Amino acid sequence: MQIFLAKYLHKSDFFCNFARELMKRFLHTLLLALLTGSAPLAAMAAERTGNSDKSNPNPRIEQQKQSDKPSKAAVFFCMVSDKVNQFQLHGLDTNYITLPEYNWRVAMTTGGTGIHATYTPLIDPATPISLLSQTTPSLELGFNASYCGYGGGYSWDVLNAYTTNWNLSFGSMFVGIEFLRSVSTNLTGNFSIAGTVDPSLDKLNKGDMRIAQTSLSAWYALNAAHYSHNAATKQGYIQKRTAGSLLLSIGYMSSEMSILDSAKYIREDYLMTLFDGVKGMVTRQVALGIGYGINYTPNKGKLLLHAAASMQLVCYSINHVSYVPPAGVYLPGEPQYMLRPELPVHVTGNMRAAVCWEINKWVHLSAWGQVNHLRFTSKAGDMSTLNINNWHWQAHLNIGVRFGAGRKHIRQVLGEPEPKAAPDTQDKQSKLPLWVTDFFFSSMK
Fold first, then answer.
1. Which domain holds residue 23?
2. Rounded to the nearest 5°, which phi and psi values hold at 12?
3. Do 314 and 273 fall into the same domain?
4. Could you tell me if 208 and 259 are in contact, meaning their C-beta atoms sit under 8 angstroms apart?
5. pLDDT at residue 285, rounded to an integer
């Protein structure tokens, strides 16, 4: 049919001229649309139909305009997104902090977790024997999705190094909450005498011991108007200028250790003899902290370098020990005793660092890591004298993609004007010097 029609059109001058004229008009109209937009097309159509008068518009054109209007659902969705964005920016200095252009975000993640724990029962202070243990580092693969910075994700441990590994966090402009818990039986280790590893002593193998580290912390940024912790950790904001802030925090930490029943009897007896009959122990601490965080960006948020450290003042610390009673002694339940800390208050800390790269307004890359520290020394004169020193670390690499309706498109749908630039805080309205409001806490006006 196509071959026959082509031959017929080729022989007919009328159809050839008609096709040539039609193609000429199509190319002319397409070129005009590309150069000047769609407005001239409507004017040409009105002129051809004799409806160039604005008071008597072409019904077909008006119908097309009506069909181009967004639906009620689209307008409602844009209203919700706009309100959420306004809430996110409330109280922030947009000269320093802004939002990404697109609200939806999907990211692929990979990372690892590790625990290094040292237990030193001070049975003989002259030659202390320490258990140096570490978990097999995990290899995690996962994804997360969020809308306007709120969302969740899931990851799985490829190496099965941990039986439980939770990382939950929530962060807003001024405050943040984070929960970490890692449980593993894949521990290996050595015994050392006075700090030197002795190869003649038995080694700790996988399946001999179980360890669990838990931390729950909340922080408050005193300079949240200029400094965004979320920009470095969740990429929900973009830090446009370098800023820092004092951080106040409160946290709960715990460390659980137990010798498993599945351990070999020789090794289990050796461990319990070393720990003076101890079968397991749980250390719990509550701390108040003060620290400092800084976001450094040399190019208006394209590259962000973040570092934060906090000194934790442990104001409550306790250790519960479960033990095996001597031979011939029967005690109901699991016998326990409590160890008190050597000092009523001691100092520990945690650290975090991150690098974020905004490749463009759609794609971003980030890497971050953090370390939490727990230590405990029991009071002399208790049933056992024990020193615990644990490090819990995490490291992650993320690549994310943002998409959806852009903030500019949302304003166009709602008919809102372009937002005016916020007044620059480098004026004389501030009651505090600029270096204070940029790097410590917000100025009160």
1. 2-68
2. -100, 120
3. yes
4. yes
5. 95
Burial class (CB in 10 A: 0-12, 13-18, 19+), 424: exposed
Place of tokens 């894949």: 186
Distance CA 144, CA 391 (A): 27
CA distance 190 to 198: 8
425 within some domain: no
Count of domains in the chain?
A: 2
The reply to whether 438 falls in a domain is no
Shared domain for 46 and 95, answered yes or no, is no
Residues 31 and 155 in one domain: no
Query: What does the alpha-carbon distance between residue 321 and residue 282 come to, in Å, rounded to a whole number?
Result: 7
Same domain (yes/no): 45, 94: no
> Position of tokens 């306790």?
318
Q: Are residues 212 and 167 in the same domain?
A: yes
Q: Whole-prediction pTM value?
A: 0.75
Cβ–Cβ under 8 Å, residues 407 and 391? no
Q: Please check whether residues 290 and 238 belong to one and the same domain.
A: yes
Q: Cα(312)–Cα(48) distance, rounded to whole angstroms? A: 79
Q: What average pLDDT values come out for the chain (445 residues) when binned by 10 residues?
A: 36 52 50 44 43 52 58 82 85 89 88 86 63 83 82 81 81 84 85 69 77 92 90 88 93 89 56 69 94 92 93 92 64 69 90 93 91 87 75 90 82 75 55 70 60
Q: Is 95 left (phi over 0), alpha (psi -120 to 50) or beta?
A: alpha
Residue at 7 is within a domain: yes
CA-CA-CA-CA dihedral for 334, 335, 341, 346, to nearest 10: -10
Please report whether residue 440 resides in a domain.
no
Looking at the structure, tell me whether residues 208 and 142 fall in a common domain.
Answer: yes
Same domain as 141, residue 163: yes
Alpha carbons 383 and 32: distance in angstroms, whole number? 92
CATH number of the domain enclosing 204 = 2.40.128
